[in-house]
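Journal club prep — side note

Before the paper discussion, L.F. wants everyone to see what a predicted structure for a comparable chain looks like in token form. Sequence:
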Amino acid sequence: KSFLIYDSKNGKIIFSKDPARALPVASLTKLLTAIIGLENLNDKEVIAITEESFNVDGEGAIFRLQEQFYFQDLLGAMLVKSSNDAAVAIAKAVEKKTGQKFADFMNRKALQIGMDRSNFLDPAGLNDEAYSSSGDLLRLVQYAKRYPEIQNFIGSRSLDITSSDGKFAHNFTSTNRLWNDLPDLISGKTGYTDGALGCMIAEENLVKQGSSLIFIILGSTDRFGEVRKLSDWSKAAFRWR
């Protein structure tokens, strides 16, 4: 329904479709949740999986009830595995620490970043009444580059974490299926709900050209295939010098 390709060397969108169109963005929301978490919590802050953050999507829990983690490990689970439980647990920890609603944090930060066509309702992106646009998400991606923790996790194929007491270990594989298809892929974040359909943010390094391409796709039935097509088209249609 909407997409854009951004060339980082020239700082330009080189191809797009409806980049200002407001659409649900599913788990791409978690980039904003990660930023707010990093701005309000320290790495070793202990966060428990409570009733509020246990199996929040009803699709099966990946953590045990009352299991505790350091914030940095839940951040990784949220960005690599795209864990909805981790996103809600982080949001609840921020609310408890600050006494403010997490959605208010999200929308204030979005406006600060310049995302003026966005409205966020929950930390995981499960509510399809929330919306953003591919143009706004480009601003979010660029802002997120300030945080090496985010870049490390969205650039990871897998993740191993343990509970803060060392009793339970978890291994997660990235939800991004492009790692084997694009050898120069730098990072990626996926999103999907029935209302949003497939959503994708991906960045590919252009080594010879000294640049990179950022792809943002919303409302897709083949998000991974479309990133591959846009990548092939971009490198065939453009020359860098």
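L.F.'s comment for the group: Helices lie at 30-40, 71-81, 84-98, 102-113, 134-144, 148-154, 223-237. Keep this in mind when we get to the figures.
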